[in-house]
Amino acid sequence: MEKYMVQTLHSIDRRISAALRVAFGVRCRASPSPAGSQDGDEIEIAGFADVLLGPPCDDPMDCDEAAAPAPEGDLRMVFESCYIKDHEEDAHFGHAEAGVVGVADGVGGYRSKGVDASAFARGLMHNAYAEVVSAVPGTHVCPHTLLERAHLMTVAAGTPAASTAVIVSIAGRKLKWAFVGDSGFAVFRDGRILHRSQPQQHYFNCPYQLKSGRDGTAVSQAVVGEVVAKEGDIVVVGTDGLFDNVFDHELERIVRMGTALGFSPKNMSEVMAGFAFEAARCTDRDTPYSVLGRGETSNSTPSFKGGKPDDITVVVAYIVSGGPTRSQILL
């Protein structure tokens, strides 16, 4: 497994161009720099990055064009995922025919209690997937109902530990979601965030969590919502291993770069996960985790920088027209 993960990280690392690295100021790498690289190369690379990624837009009117009327007909998801393991406590699933994906993150604090911290996350995703597979073909999935049923089944099995979770589905032309804790998602339109989940936390680094005990978060407290989707939208679903280490504006720039280069969902998920992996291990730059951490009394020192090493799960879904496909994943 370790050898496989090293090969996977090297493969992902090769997909993260030097231009992207320079543009975001991330110097450390998941694998060694190519032999013979020169510092002087950064002038050319940085110029390429500026052209490719473009300047950030402060005024939405500078970037938005008049939207054409949305065509009739159902939309579907074409998705792929990337999972970079740290403690192997994340889990996720997807079912293209049903138009639904889900991600869960086991609460690592259970490790110190001698409990399998991945158990509840895996149980949630396994049971959600089983519910989708057993449904009548063509059924539109309600994320909140699916999360509720998966939670009841996981609790009934006496599964230990706890987990955050998010489920996103496409039903007709509506993108729907339900989430608990800090596993989340972002919807991109024309390279910019249209909607972004906001984490549920009791306090810094202590998210709401689903569990078997009575002291856990009730599914009724899940954040639910929907938005009308358009063909060409991109949905990114991930655990806090992604969102703790990559700023929203960085995700936007990666999406714009990937779109310009014709990335597939697999390419996009690997680049996002690889970038999050590197940012998590950098100590000389800010991340969402360090910015929020400095707001805590115990971490008020300006020297608190860097990311948060963690399991990283990224699911990237492209919203397209046409009939459903039969591809599916469960991990």
Which homologous superfamily in CATH is the superfamily?
A: PPM-type phosphatase domain
Q: Summarize model confidence as the mean pLDDT.
A: 85
For the record, what CATH class applies? Alpha Beta
CATH domain fold name: Phosphatase 2c, domain 1
Write the H/E string, N to C. HHHEEEHHEEEEEEEEEHHHHEE
How many helical stretches?
9
Give the radius of gyration.
Answer: 20 Å
Estimate percent helicity. Answer: 25-40%
Summarize the entry for a quick read:
With 331 residues, the chain is of the alpha+beta class. Helix content is 32%, strand content 25%. A hairpin with a 2-residue loop joins strand 6 and strand 7 (192-196).
Structural notes for this entry:
This protein has one domain: Phosphatase 2c, domain 1 (4-Layer Sandwich), CATH 3.60.40.10. Strands 2, 3, 4, 5, 10, 11 and 14 form a seven-stranded antiparallel β-sheet that branches. With 331 residues, the protein is an alpha+beta fold. The chain starts with a helix and ends with a strand. About 9% of the residues have low confidence. It has nine helices and 14 strands. It is globular.
Topology:
Elements: H1 2-15, H2 18-24, H3 41-53, E1 75-84, E2 90-95, E3 100-106, H4 119-134, H5 143-156, E4 162-171, E5 174-180, E6 184-189, E7 192-196, E8 201-203, E9 206-207, E10 210-211, E11 223-228, E12 234-238, H6 240-243, H7 248-260, H8 265-281, H9 288-294, E13 312-321, E14 328-330
Helix pairs in contact: 1-8, 2-3, 4-5, 7-8
